[in-house]
Amino acid sequence: MSIGAVVIGRNEGARLERSLQALAGQVAQIVYVDSGSTDGSVAAARGLGAEVVELDMKHPFTAARARNAGVAALAEGVTLVQFLDGDCILRDGWLAAAEAHMNAHPQLAVVCGRRREEHPETSIYNSLIDAEWDTPPGEARACGGDALMRLEALRAVGGYRAEMIAGEEPELCQRLRRAGWQIWRLDAEMTWHDAQITRFSQWWRRSLRAGHAFAEGAALHGAGPDRHWVAETRRALLWGALLPAVILLLALLLPWAAVGLMLLYPLQLLRLIWRGGAAWGFFTLLGKFPEALGVLKYHMRRDGRIIEYR
Known about the structure:
Strand content: 15-25%
Largest sheet: 9 strands, mixed
Radius of gyration: 21 Å
Number of helices: 13
Distance between the termini: 38 Å
C-alpha cells in the first residue's frame, strides 16, 4: 500500500518544521494544508518538499475542512493517509507497525497509537493533556487528530464534517463504525505532541471547545446506540450551569437550601480526586464551567456561523 501524509497547521513555526522533517522519506507524498499562517509556515513547508494547500480564509477555518482539503490533494495510488497536526512529530517505527496491522485486518478504517506530550513537566495543563492521551489499546470508538486511515473508508463516508470546530474525529468515527468499519488503537508510540498550554486562559478556551464538541456530537449522533457524548453534555450542563443557577436562585429565597446544594461540589471533588488524583479531580470539576458555556454557545447559534475559540 502507498501512504501519504496530510499535515495541517496555522502559525506552528518551528514545530511544523520538525513535523515535516520527521516525515521525510517515510511516506510517498506529504501535503501541508495551511490556514492563514503569517509566520512563514508556507515557505518553510515548501522548502522542506511538502506540497502546500493554502485555504481560502474568506470561509471559516476548521481542522476538519483542512484535512478534507489535504485528502483532495493526495495523488492517485495513495491508499492510506497519515493525518498529523502541525504541532506533532511522528515516532520512528509507527508507520510500519500501523500499516502492517491495517494490512492484516481489512475491516479496519483507522489505526492510531499513543500520542505523548513532549513536555508534560512544563505546566499542569500539559501533564493533564498527556494523561488524557493515554487511552487503552484495542478496538476503540474514536481516534484523535493523529491517525492512519484507509482512504477507501474515509471517502465512502464523505470525509470529515467540515463545519465542525472540534470533535470532528469522534464524529467521523461514528459514521465509519455505522458503515461497518472498525477503529483500532495499538499499544505503540505514535506521535509527540507539543501543546504549549501554560496559561489558565488557554486551558479555559480548550475546555470551551470541548463543551461545544460535546453538544454538537450529541446533537448529531446522541440518538444512536453509543449515545455519543450525551452523558458528557449532561454532566457539563448539570455541574457548570444548572446547579449554579439553582444555587443562586435559592440564595435569594432559601439561603440554607443554597448552602446545602453548594456542598455537592466539595463532595464531587473528593469523589473525583479518589478516582484520578488531586490535579485531575480539581480541573475535571472546574472544567465543567467552560464546558457548559461551550454547550450553551452551540445551542444559542442562530445564524449558522462557525464559532471560533482562540
